[in-house]
Design a protein that fits this description.
This protein is about 40% helix and about 10% strand. It is α/β, with parallel strands linked by helices. It folds into two domains: about 50 residues, Orthogonal Bundle (Helicase, Ruva Protein, domain 3); about 130 residues, Dna Topoisomerase Vi A Subunit, Chain: A, domain 2. The strands form two sheets. Strands 4-3-5-6-7 form a five-stranded mixed beta sheet. The chain has a two-stranded antiparallel ribbon with strand order 1-2. Helix 1 crosses helix 2 and helix 4 packs across helix 7.
């Protein structure tokens, strides 16, 4: 039998669903919220409600956006001939904070993972191919994570590009191996990400 009120237990249970949070971490966060001023909790709740109601996906790259186009795609200063393919929006954030990348992105929304029942048709590879067929992009940088699923997804994308004659001219590169194998891009430091971009090679 818990000594905590039911609504506090419920908050802890919801917090436990967040990635990387166990029971103790969830309980500590719940206690922090309880001890904070009411205004803090209300404002946080409003922010969560706002993003759930107003954040959508960019119709071009599938990054998070508040309108049809995200801030990256709508920026006229971006180099539209270079496209970096990443797994999710957190990777875009990592690159934008740590690398002076001037091109555009394509967010797959996951990786090919047969073990998890995720095939190529379950992520945005078809949308990528359609985007490349427009003819603007000259280089595709495959920026999936350097783990088994990321490598398999990268290889599949390369094969799909090579299978289409109109895309044969495209330069396909892969981020350099300065990134530790098995790691996630979102956790890499700025210097490592920058070196990975600078050292990218033909794939």
């Amino acid at each position: 039998m818990s000594i905590l009120p039911t609504n506090v237990q419920k908050l802890i249970q919801y917090l436990q669903r967040l990635p990387g949070l166990g029971p103790k971490s969830a309980a500590r966060i719940a206690m922090y919220i309880l001890k904070s001023p009411k205004s803090y909790a209300v404002e946080m709740a409003d922010v969560i409600k706002d993003i759930k109601e107003n954040i959508t996906y960019c119709k071009t790259c599938f990054n998070f956006a508040i309108s049809d186009d995200c801030d990256v795609c709508s920026d006229p200063r971006r180099d539209k001939t270079i496209l970096c393919v990443v797994e999710d929006a957190l990777d875009v954030l990592a690159f934008e904070q740590g690398v002076q990348f001037e091109g555009l992105y394509h967010v797959l929304g996951g990786v090919v993972s047969p073990v998890s029942g995720i095939g190529p048709e379950d992520i945005r590879i078809n949308e990528l191919i359609l985007r490349l067929q427009v003819g603007t992009v000259k280089e595709v940088i495959i920026g999936t994570n350097p783990n088994i699923e990321g490598e398999a997804t990268a290889m599949y994308i390369k094969q799909e590009i090579q299978a289409i004659s109109s895309l044969a001219r495209l330069k396909v590169t892969r981020l350099a191996r300065g990134l530790p194998t098995g790691a996630d891009l979102e956790y890499a430091d700025d210097t490592t990400l920058k070196k990975a971009f600078e050292g990218r090679g033909e794939f």
